[in-house]
């Protein structure tokens, strides 16, 4: 098996032309380029230690900012820990990078409302993440009593205009794995929005037609959703095609084709309620290819190409830039990036794996050929 030890994107040899907004150009033959305002990743797992150093350059080469998930071991439950984590990310960045990590806190039943005040004051923390206890990787310290023990914290989040990012799945063992999101919307999300209509909420990594419809139709302007490349491009068949496919296993788990199509329609409709969040979640190969494999798909090196593929296939490339670069900062009340990134339409092969001293990471679509290649960063 071929192994690759390179960053995925090589800069163009000659500088590309720059364009305002999204434009196609035909330059000498059939090659096309697409220039976008630099995107941000509104849902990213960067990990820590050697894994952080390994994966950070992939996100920093494409994205201007990222909302960094707090499900480390131990989880990031205090502002002090979030600031220390941010410092370690900044230290691990390539020297020429302007990437900005936007930190989050991991909500627990015992968090105090004062922590939200500290978070707001720090200027480093941009959101609080709700993991229902047991829902996913490192969620064992997550929430068991949202409407009880966590209520004072949620009320303080309204005061501080601090968004709640939800992993939208119930964890009751009697709910079918594929229904967890649908049941969460009915039993948690709707009551939450009714109870706290001024709370900003992002439903993370939506996977169902139910979620897409709910977000689209909800009059609550403070509700938005992130969408991953895998939930736009894969359905649950890809977990089993030709044998068990651990590198397509993530949580929330992939759903049936009708759900994928509904999410694509919602995202390419031009609604401002959806924005890019890769949920890129690296795990070492041996932790994925195991008798009890971890959930998480590593998409950071190829995510922008994948989103371009989705929008192109839907005939909606004119809507791509709002999804990748405008809707997210607008929702969070942050300025849009001013730098640009160019994608060139030229076939390129996704590395079969990335090799590091501690082991391999297998990316989404490993070894497959993609069309759009990010190739140019500029101010
Ligand atoms: O597939 C996932 N992996 N889903 C999550 O919610 C967490 C993530 C991880 O941290 O590995
Ligand atoms: Zn995640």
From TrEMBL:
Transmembrane segments: none
Highest rank taxon of the organism: Eukaryota
Keyword vocabulary terms for this entry: Hydrolase, Metal-binding, Pyrimidine biosynthesis, Zinc
EC top class named in words: hydrolase
Keyword Zinc: yes
Alphabetized HAMAP family for the sequence: PyrC_classII
This protein's name: Dihydroorotase, mitochondrial
Organism of derivation: Cucumis melo (Muskmelon)
């Amino acid at each position: 098996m071929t192994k690759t030890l390179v960053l995925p994107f090589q800069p163009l040899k000659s500088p590309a032309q720059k364009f305002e907004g999204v434009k196609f150009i035909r330059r000498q033959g059939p090659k096309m380029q697409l220039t976008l305002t630099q995107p941000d990743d509104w849902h990213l797992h960067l990990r820590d230690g050697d894994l952080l150093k390994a994966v950070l350059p992939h996100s920093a080469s494409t994205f201007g900012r990222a909302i960094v998930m707090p499900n480390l071991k131990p989880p990031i439950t205090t502002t002090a820990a979030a600031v220390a984590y941010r410092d370690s990310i900044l230290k691990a960045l390539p020297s020429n990078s302007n990437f900005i990590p936007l930190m989050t806190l991991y909500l627990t039943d015992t968090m105090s409302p004062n922590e939200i005040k500290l978070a707001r004051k720090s200027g480093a923390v941009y959101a609080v993440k709700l993991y229902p206890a047991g829902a996913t990787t490192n969620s064992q310290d997550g929430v068991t009593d949202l409407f009880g023990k966590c209520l004072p914290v949620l009320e303080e989040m309204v005061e501080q205009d601090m968004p709640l990012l939800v992993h939208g799945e119930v964890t009751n063992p009697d709910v079918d794995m594929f229904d967890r999101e649908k049941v969460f919307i009915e039993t948690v999300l709707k009551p939450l929005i009714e109870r706290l209509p001024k709370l900003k909420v992002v439903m993370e990594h939506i996977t169902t037609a139910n979620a897409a419809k709910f977000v689209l139709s909800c009059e609550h302007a403070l509700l938005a959703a992130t969408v991953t490349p895998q939930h736009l491009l894969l359905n649950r068949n890809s977990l089993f095609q030709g044998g068990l496919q651990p590198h397509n296993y993530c949580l929330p788990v992939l759903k049936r084709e009708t759900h994928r199509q509904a999410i694509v329609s919602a995202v390419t409709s031009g609604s401002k309620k959806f924005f890019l969040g890769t949920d890129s979640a690296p795990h070492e190969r041996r932790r994925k290819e195991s008798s009890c494999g971890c959930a998480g798909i590593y998409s950071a090196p190829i995510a922008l190409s994948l989103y371009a593929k989705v929008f192109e296939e839907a005939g909606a490339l004119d809507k791509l830039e709002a999804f990748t670069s405008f809707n997210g900062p607008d929702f969070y009340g942050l300025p849009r990036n001013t730098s640009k990134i160019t994608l060139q339409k030229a076939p390129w092969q996704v590395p079969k794996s990335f090799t590091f001293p501690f082991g391999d990471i297998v990316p989404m679509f490993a070894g497959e050929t993609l069309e759009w290649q990010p190739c140019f960063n500029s101010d």
